[in-house]
Amino acid sequence: MTNILVLFSSVLLTLSCSKIQVYSTSATNSKLMDNFWVFETDTVKITYEFWANKGVMSFSVYNKIDKPIYIDWKNSSFIHNSNKMNYWVDEEFSTLQSYYGGYYYKGPLLKPGYTVGTAVQTSSSKMVKPERVTFIPPKSYYYRTQFYLLPNDFFSINSKVAPTKYADGEKPKKSNSYREVNYNHQTSPLKFRNYLAFSFSETGQTFFFVDNEFYVTSIKQMKKNLFRGRFIDEDDYKSYYTLPFRKPISFYYEIIP
User: Model-level pTM?
Assistant: First the structure.
């Protein structure tokens, strides 16, 4: 997967003075596979990617077995610092967009492994009721992106934290710096869980549950030029840069002055 982020020229001009915080994560019961957090049983394989502005709970579920499985969203939750967020609410979609006061993700579906553009954000006015139970056929994937990981504000870093030098690999003499704060599971300012209810019947009342927990292990604060990395190319609509800090298990927050 390429480490390229699409940045639109108008956005770059507006945000040239902004700073970026990059949040790294760890997992309590998922394994790191090809730079993704992956949880796997004999029945399902769940792959996570968080990389986006504010972070997103983006994941795929692969049905490994030879019969259908179902996810019951009414009995599933996204849990943000012990606060329960419902995946399914008995209301129409346009109402849901403001239901969680900023937690609800309004952008396009993000599939793990796909490049994310910072300027890509859309909203929908279509009135539809969300699906309560999702059918996943045998040997097939289902994708979902619904919640922001950092919806309302960023975490401040003390200015007394000593800067860390970051050297450009292709230009050893050129370096920049960032400030970093590290955490463990106990001290982490952000913990979040994906709690999913699975069944082998669409109307079944017997579930098996998956509860995947993640937490922030470090926050790096840097200038935008360091975050976006080296210039690669441009066309009539956008410019392309490397992203030296980009990882599927990390996310970022743009601090706009």
Answer: 0.84
